[in-house]
Design goal:
mainly alpha, elongated, 67% helix
Amino acid sequence: MAVSNDGYARATGVAGAALICGSLVGGAVSVMAGTNTWANAWTAHATLAAPWPMLLVQTAATCAAIQRRRSVARVGSVLLGVTAAVAGVSGFFDGQLGRPDLSTWQVAAQVCYVVVAWGTAVVAGVRVWKLRSPLS
């Protein structure tokens, strides 16, 4: 696996890793707080994490997005950007954000996750933009 050495690839890798780690840590924290169980912390019922299928796609997309091969990097970046945007949008519309039974710190963590998701979408979009021409 030949990882690209440019700054845009590194930024995309860091953003993707932050998004994935945010979900992994968020799921574990929600279990420890008693909001979720281990069985549903990474499902549609999660309060601080993305569902596990989304995490798998985001992980594969991040790995692809940082590759030297432009076609692989482009597909990975597009997929990462789309899944990050979906994660950001679903944070608003899945009924979990700011639920009345959540503590202030849990709502703050949700907002942070949504911000990281949108930040990842932007970084992945910049990577796609930079990959558009052979001279970038």
